[in-house]
Amino acid sequence: MKCYTFCMVFKDCGKSANWEDDGWGAWEEAEPALQEPEEEGNTCKTQKTSWLQDCVLSLSPTNDLMVIAREQKAVFLVPKWKYSDKGKEEMQFAVGWSGSLNVEEGEHVTSALCIPLASQKRSSTGRPDWTCIVLGFTSGSVRFYTENGVLLLAQLLNEDPVLQLKCRTYEIPRHPGVTEQNEELSILYPAAIVTIDGFSLFQSLRACRNQVAKAAASGNENIQPPPLAYKKWGLQDVDTIVDHASIGIMTLSPFDQMKTASNIGGFNAAIKNSPPAMSQYITVGSNPFTGFFYALEGSTQPLLSHVALAVASKLTSALFNAASGWLGWKSRHEEEAVQKQKPKMEPATPLAVRFGLPDSRRHGESICLSPCNSLAAVTDDFGRVILLDVTRGIAIRMWKEIQLICL
């Protein structure tokens, strides 16, 4: 009986200039030979546990809520102190809520995100007041839920499936040259990025949450929340986008401003007296492997879209089955006709890639931004980890993963 031992080694190739190493292709050819024939029992076990690979997971930054979603169902887990079999008190995750989501026919969950929202009271101890669960779907809709599974609001921002949800919190400038960054929720689509201002989102969520509480208490009030302010950018000159990172607002130095103006407009390009502020976005995927986008502040106005509240239709049936018609003034046929109408879709502002790192053979998989917003780590499908200089847009170091086979 053969015994295979596999080792993982990271080799630093920061000094190597040849990224198109032809020898890497041998890994793809050698992988099928390393697979052992599976036994019948192992095959059945793999089929039973493969459903977990299709689930979408998200853990709150405060570690007080975990979301596991698959297709049209979700489970919200909360930590609780329990006694183990040995009599020791341990912290374990217990089911806080589980059930089917308020989705349309054919919709599936594609991304999840937990956003803790802090209280504005002065007596707050710093802990979040409550946690909002954000779920993205294949239809392009984004829905916001409470910890109890109550749908607060839903918004259709694009017709393509939601690829990823990311949130950036407020940060004070801790490093020279780093501007103040505000809260922002970014939603990635196959060919677009939608950013929602954190203040507008917080006001809408708070209004919707207050509306749910008042509806449960009295049942005769309906508060219309403020509209969401968001920006929608249509990413151009990119084949495939898998992940993204929203760097935030940045300002170029005078030298970088002149260099950028010369590269874009030529020798006779006009240069402003003060460098403009820009929002930087980095995408990973293919062609280019890593793309850099810059959106000038003030070039487009935020889109105001009224959120599609589900309080009148969803909460009425869930919380007040006995008084199902107290929220609306329309008949059932009129409500069904309104629901069948296709919502208005705001067009995206075109945003071309300024430059990128080309690598035709590899495809980017993920990107992780450093706390100081100056460095980013990018992984690809060939086991490489590339360290990027966000400001200069260059790769400063690369590690590649090597598999050693010991017979």
Any overview of this molecule?
It is a single chain. It is globular and about 70 Å long. The strands form 5 sheets. Strands 10, 11, 12, 13, 17 and 19 form a 6-stranded mixed β-sheet that branches. Strands 1-24-23-22-21 form a 5-stranded antiparallel β-sheet, with no helix packed on it. Strands 6-7-8-9-18 form a 5-stranded antiparallel β-sheet, with helices on both faces. Residues 1-11, 13-36 and 308-335 have low confidence and may be disordered. The protein has helices at residues 25-34, 40-49, 198-217, 254-265, 311-319, 332-340, and strands at residues 5-12, 56-59, 66-70, 73-83, 89-100, 109-118, 128-137, 141-145, 151-156, 164-168, 184-189, 192-197, 228-236, 240-251, 277-286, 290-296, 303-305, 308-309, 349-352, 355-357, 364-369, 375-380, 384-389, 394-406. It is an alpha+beta fold and 407 residues long.
Describe the secondary structure blueprint for this structure.
Blueprint: E1 5-12, H1 25-34, H2 40-49, E2 56-59, E3 66-70, E4 73-83, E5 89-100, E6 109-118, E7 128-137, E8 141-145, E9 151-156, E10 164-168, E11 184-189, E12 192-197, H3 198-217, E13 228-236, E14 240-251, H4 254-265, E15 277-286, E16 290-296, E17 303-305, E18 308-309, H5 311-319, H6 332-340, E19 349-352, E20 355-357, E21 364-369, E22 375-380, E23 384-389, E24 394-406
Parallel strand pairs: 13-19
Antiparallel strand pairs: 1-24, 2-3, 3-4, 4-5, 6-7, 7-8, 8-9, 9-18, 10-11, 11-12, 12-13, 13-17, 14-15, 15-16, 16-20, 21-22, 22-23, 23-24
Strand count, sense and barrel status of the largest sheet are: 6 strands, mixed
Instruction: Using the alpha-carbon principal axes, give the shape.
Output: globular
Please report the number of helical segments. 6
Q: Stretches where pLDDT falls below 50 for ≥5 residues?
A: 1-11, 13-36, 308-335
Q: What Rg, in angstroms, do the CA atoms define?
A: 25 Å
- On the 0-100 scale, what is the average pLDDT? 76
Q: List the helices and strands in order.
A: EHHEEEEEEEEEEEHEEHEEEEHHEEEEEE
Class from secondary-structure proportions = alpha+beta
How far the N terminus sits from the C terminus, by CA atoms, comes to 11 Å
Per DSSP E runs of 2 or more residues, the count of β-strands stands at 24
In helices, the fraction of residues equals 10-25%
The fraction of residues assigned to DSSP E strands is 35-45%
